Structure formats: C-alpha cells, structure tokens
Amino acid sequence: MQRRQARPRLLQAMFDAIRIPDLRRRILFTVGMLAIFRFIAHVPLPGVDAGALQELFQRNALLGMLDLFSGGAMRYFSVVAMGVYPYITASIVMQLMVPIIPRLQALSQEGEAGRNKINQYTHWLTVPMAGIAGYGQIILLQREGVVTAMSGLPMAAMVLATIAGTMFLVWLGELITEYGIGNGVSIIIFGGIVAGLPTMIGQGILAAAVGTGLERYVPIAAFIAIVIVTMAVIVIFTEAHRRIPVQYARSVFRGGRMYRQAGSTHIPLRVNTAGMIPLIFGMSLVIFPGMIASYFVAPAGAEPNLANTIQNLFSPASMFYWGLYFVLVVAFTFFYTMVIFGQQDLPGVLQRQGGFIPGIRPGKHTADYLNQVIKRITWAGALFLAVVAIMPFMAQKALPNIQVIQLSSMGLLIMVGVILDTMKQIEAQLVMRRYEGFIK
C-alpha cells in the first residue's frame, strides 16, 4: 500500500486505467485514431514542390501558427493541411454570436437539443471557412513557387480536398471524444505538436552544439530549463481558481412539520477562464497585416514601398510585433472572460437555486460582487497569458544560439492543458468504476 501511494498520481492513474478493459479499449482507440491522423498528414496534395515548401517554412515564421493547428500537416501541405483551425475559428465565432443573436441565445438555453443544433451550425460554418483558408493558402504557395500554377477545375479540386481533410479531422476528433479519452480536437492538435518535437529538438541540438567542452551544451540546458519553468507556471495558472463561498437554505416537509436545512459549498472562479483563446485571437490579428502586405511588397532589388514597411513592422523579428501581441492578449483575455462569465449567469443560477454568498445580498449586489472578483483575478490570468505569449521572443533574445528551436508558448499551453484535461477524465472514469464496483 505504501508503494502504491508513493507513485505519482499521473502514473498511478495510467496504470489503473490500463488494468480496466473498458478504459484500455478507449485508450487504444484514441491511439489508433492518432495513427490514422499521422498517416493522412503525410499524404501531400498534387503539384507541391516539397523542397521549396520546406525552404518557405524556414524563412517564413508566420506559417508556424497554421502548422501548429494542422498538427504539422501544413509543413507537408497534405490533404489535411488546414487541420482543425477552421473548426476552431467557427467555434469561437459561434461562442461570440450566442449572446448577440436572440435565436442562438434561446437555443443555448434548450439543453442538449439546443447545444446539438449550435454544434450543427458550427459544422456548417466550418465548410466555407476551410474553403477560404485553403484557397488563400494555395494562392500564397503559388506566388512562392511551391505549388504549380493552376485554375478552374484543378484549383476547385484542391480546395475541395482541403475542405474534406478538415471535416475528416473534425470527424476523427468527435470519434475520439465519444469512444476514446479526452477532447478529440485537442487530442489531434496535441498529437501533431508531439510528433514534431523530436525533429525540432534534434535540429536545435545540432545547431546549438558549437564550441568546445561543456559550453556547447549550455544553451540547450538553458532552453530546457525555460521550458520546464514555463510548463510549471502554466500548470499553476491553469489550475488556479478563487473559491467563492456559497450557502444554500432549503425547506423540507417531514412529519407534518416544515424544517429548514442549510448547506454550504463554493464557486470556483478560474484565474485563466479564457484558456488559449486570447492567444489565438491575438496571433490572428498580429499576423494579418503582414500577410496582406506580403501580396503587395516590391520585388527583390526594387525600391521598398509602404507594403515592405508594414511587412517588416509586423514581422516576428520586430519588437512592435511582440509588444502589440502582448497588449492584444491582455485585451482579449478580459473580453472573452467577460463574455463567458456573462453566459454562465451565476447570480441568476444562485437565486433560482436558493443560494447566496454570505454577507452579499442576492440579485444585483451578488452580480456586482462577482463581476468585481472576476475582473480582479483576470488581471493575473491576462498577464500570465501575455507573458507566455511573448516567451518565444524572450527565449530567442536570451539564447540566440538556438533560434532553430521555436519555443511555441501556444504549443506548450495546448500540451499542458490537454494532458491535464485528459488525466482528469481518466481519474473521473476510474472513480466512477470504483464506485460502481463498490456498490455491486
């Protein structure tokens, strides 16, 4: 028993899950779906120059975000090159439209049927977004000489292939969610990030290992230390929350008399309610001007024009780029947190269930108090996300010898979040099965 308790909780949960046939099948199903995804990610679209594509990714850091959400498929420009990024964008748009459009707001309050309808709308919205993203990416690669120039039916076939690839990944993700372990879409992104880590780290070690003696390994050791510290901070802020005490008073009719009973619990208000959404919003807005300007820049050897200036200003090598990214992440963290918090309607839920916060009157006073608390703790979450967002810039400035290793803060945030969420689901499944076994 002592050895069992001495094991880390993460490993112990995995060992226990493998021993249970049902959970073992779920884990193996998830692994199988990831294997299918990795196979499809290496099936390229026709007319792609693989060498020119790799060279483009080495000199264009703006493609890194799309490659992240495609699970590395963008680097090969495969049939799933767009990944699940259009679906994530559609989901975010739908979340923002729910409190604005009365019809969607009414659907969100209709329980499971309403959520299924909104999910259906999200799938419909994913199709045109995937088509637009695929067409734009093909045009960009054509201008760079990576994809053979084409139009008409061949172009339509490639666009349809990218749409089909995105919807196929969304379908795989939903299968993982239903029959596997964890959130399927997040698991697919996680699988793509993990698959690219060995190559990235190997290239970084070869590029950084210059000099003689132990000095050649100092940059790598410092980089590993930065990653470990960053992951530890991400875990702390992901799990951090403020507990708001709540008391419930209810009346029970027993033996012909009315008795009043009371109970207490708490509301966990998360410090980082927005998750990684502000990073996605901020990155999208920061890279947009540079991508648009890249279509109008003066050719090599000609006098630079305004488009060249804008492209340089919104380049990842620019201080302005990272400063704007920092500000946008803070702003979007507050915006998205208040949208989500408003949709939850905690004051109304408490009032309907007979709950109250000690010392705070129900109704408007409770709403004002909760809004004040969520705004105060969101400052910590916003600054945390903003610092994590600019971590690649700080790491590259501090460790110039490991430029080849792209310390993706968003990738780390996704990895840690997916691992924590998956382990929570495994532990919940274990608790449920142990409880059922005890009852039997």
Provide a compact summary of the structure.
With 440 residues, the protein is mainly α. It contains 18 helices and three strands.
Please tag this protein with its features.
440 residues; disordered C terminus; Preprotein translocase SecY subunit; 68% helix; 3-stranded antiparallel β-sheet; single chain; 3 strands; 18 helices; globular; mainly alpha; disordered N terminus
What do these coordinates show?
The structure is a single chain. The protein has helices at residues 2-6, 9-19, 21-40, 50-59, 64-69, 85-97, 102-108, 112-143, 153-179, 184-208, 218-239, 277-293, 306-313, 319-344, 346-352, 364-389, 391-398, 409-439, and strands at residues 241-254, 257-270, 355-356. The chain is mostly helical. It has 18 helices and 3 strands. The protein has a 3-stranded antiparallel sheet with strand order 2-1-3. Helix 3 packs across helix 10. It folds into 2 domains: 19-208, SecY subunit domain (Preprotein translocase SecY subunit, Orthogonal Bundle), CATH 1.10.3370.10; 212-407, SecY subunit domain (Preprotein translocase SecY subunit). It is globular. 30% of the residues are buried. Residues 1-7 and 436-440 have low confidence and may be disordered. Strand 1 and strand 2 form a beta hairpin.
